[in-house]
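Page header: ASSEMBLY MODEL / two components / 545 residues total.
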Amino acid sequence: MSMATPQTAVWHHRTPKTRLAMWAGWLACVALFVWCWEMMTERTIWAFVYDAPVAANDLLGRAFPPKWDYIERLLWPLWDTMNIATLGTLLGIVLAVPLAFLAASNTTPSRHILRPAALFLIVASRSINSLIWALLLVSILGPGILAGIIAIGLRSVGFIGKLLYEAIEETDIRQIEAVTATGASQAQILNYGIVPQVLPTFFGISVFRWDINIRESAILGLVGAGGIGLQLQASMSVLAWNQVSLILLVILGTVVVSEWVSAKVRHAII
Amino acid sequence: MLKIDGLGKTYKAGDKALSDVSFEIPKGQVLGLIGPSGAGKSTLIRCINRLVQPTTGKVWLNDLNITGLRTGELRRARRQIGMIFQEYALVERLTVMENVLSGRLGYVGFWRSFLRKFPAADIANAYRLLDRVGLMQHADKRADALSGGQRQRVGIARALSQNPELLLVDEPTASLDPKTSRQIMRLIVEICRERGLPAIINIHDVVLAQQFSDRIIGLQAGRVVFDGPPSELSEDALTLIYGAEDWTAMRKGADEDAAAEAEERAEAQKMMGAL
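Prediction written out in full:
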């Protein structure tokens, strides 16, 4: 073949080989979807599905209107829920901040021992859902708010720790170098060079996690760890659907408010 | 007085950044360090206060061998060496005053610095320096609210607040316009004269280097290939440092820049007069 001149050269985004591979990939996806669909229809009890509109109608009929005067019994558990979320977040922050500094590759005092250990703790905390943490803690500490707070705290450690150590690793090295060049000690470099750079991210992460924790602590009561979830559990077990609907509305309202607060705070800092 | 003796640096990847660099700087001398990108200018400056660890050779500041110091001693030595950076390297989210006072970190304990309770003398000196660089009214602004030239002035005040015996200046004008570059260079050199402070100014603008320094050292691939007064920096010397290029045209270009700048200023004055 002769050399392509600038006028005749043809450009393709992908080589023929990549195009063939992509086509085969799409074919495999379609085949997998068809196979899954077959399996799903085979194992569904269709009698229940045909019945669904009637069942849903029946449930909604029992749930509405919500039992408004039940709100008196919800205010105190709601307060508990918010306390679980807030105190749990604070506990998470207290544990996560030192872990983040140990885990960040530019601030860790020991790259081969403490850093992997801190990273492991962060991953471990993240890999267990707060509901599972609560289940474990209720069986250790007994039911109540304390188990809820600690469950939320332990789950938050991983979230805050991970995002914070990533922020620490992304700090501008030149600012740190400049503080180092003045003869500052390690602690002073941390305080003057690194902390100012990660502070906005830190507040953003903390408020975001608090917002998530409000949602999570609302269901912790299902396993006995206090808060409004206890009421939800009780109402569901006696099939008081008009109470359940009120509880869900209250949770929705709280989440909307907490989301608004967290958005406002983050906007103010960043 | 600074004495550099057989300094060499080989990076882990095997790149030889510096080899066998030796020179002395007497008190009060302003040294312009020129050379192409990658010649080792930044590495040389950073080896002096050991932000980069030299592989071979020694650095003497007065009677102190900086290359031999351990962590605590090195911190005390760094207090005596002020550094001004390319693109300012201010802590952006701290105020101008906090940035200037951070030059005192080597002298105060952690808790004092944490609580921002610096000694009254340090604060008075910081205000004096801010006044000297013309930023008195900006003391409580955040560093990222200032313009480029203003930020570099804060960088100068921070370095001076250390009360240094040597100034290391790394590409101070790299991100500034030509006029601000001149002002910043003039300010640095004036301050060095006032205090009899020796300085190494690492700069890629040959015309600025010639205009403002007492002595020029040219680096090429980590070696000193020129060492002499600015007047001796001939075209042959520049070719030795940078490789072949039309140096007369470049100098003419710089003259034209200066002429245009002067004309612009005259024009502006005329307009002000008309108003």
